[in-house]
Design goal:
With about 240 residues, the protein is mainly β. About 10% of the residues lie in helices and about 25% in strands. It has one domain (about 5-45, about 60-225): Aromatic compound dioxygenase (Protocatechuate 3,4-Dioxygenase, subunit A, Sandwich).
Length: about 240
């Protein structure tokens, strides 16, 4: 099943619009002609190819790859990857990437005038366990300007990518944090017409998993299909 199949099976209004003029870059890249359905190749029928290299212990700890601790609010993000029946999706590759606490990505195309943190690279990955669970230690990303319109700022968010059994095409989505006042102003967040679907992108504060005097925890489940599915993007944003 591809990400397009997921969108077609989803209730109307629960997935981002291809063409959403307030999100300016969709005007140039959204399709204007009917889509052409291509036959699946043997590789697509037999399963995904996971990323380059082996997954190592600690790849899901984004705070552990510098000479000292990164700057910012320490967080734990955890949840489950589920199918439409609420059953766990085992052995799925979950990858994340994000800005640092100042709102800057460690990427050559990010020219935002904010400091880079030498102790934070902003990427991690892991496989879901037998219960479909994932977890990442990180720092809370900061908001940043993105030039879509006058005084446009992205709310704090973490990008998620998923591969796995039954996911023949990479699924990409974003997780947001509760109570962020920039969410109602964000064109990407609001490209999803259905309010309930937008709310499914927002994590929940989890004080049971938070660690006293150390970090706050946020819970966020990812549902691949069905009435309560997570909105997915049609490409990296």
């Amino acid at each position: 099943m591809t990400d397009r199949d997921v969108v077609e099976l989803a209730p109307a209004g629960t997935q981002p619009e291809y063409h959403f003029p307030p999100y300016a870059s969709t005007v140039a890249r959204s399709p204007r002609m009917p889509l052409i359905r291509l036959l699946k190749t043997r590789t697509e029928r037999t399963g995904p190819v996971f990323g380059h290299g082996f997954i190592r212990e600690g790849d899901n700890d984004l705070t552990a790859h510098g000479e000292s601790d990164p700057i910012g609010e320490r967080i734990l993000v955890h949840g489950r990857v589920l199918n439409e029946d609420g059953q766990p999706v085992r052995g799925a590759l979950v990858e994340v990437w994000q800005a640092n606490s100042a709102g800057r990505y460690r990427h050559k195309v990010d020219t935002y005038d904010a400091p880079l943190d030498p102790n934070f690279h902003g990427g991690g990955r892991m496989m879901t366990d037998e219960q479909g669970r994932y977890w990442f230690k990180s720092i809370k990303p900061g908001p940043y300007p993105w030039g879509n319109h006058h005084n446009a700022w992205r709310p704090s968010h973490i990008h998620f990518s998923l591969f796995g059994a039954g996911i023949l095409s990479r699924l990409v989505t974003q997780m947001y944090f509760p109570g962020d006042p920039l969410q109602p102003l964000d064109s990407i967040f609001n490209s999803i017409p259905d309010e309930a679907a937008r709310q499914r992108l927002i994590s929940h504060l989890d004080m049971d998993r938070s660690e006293s005097n150390f970090l706050l925890a946020y819970n966020w489940d990812i549902v691949l299909r069905g009435r309560s599915d997570t909105p997915f993007e049609e490409g990296n944003r």
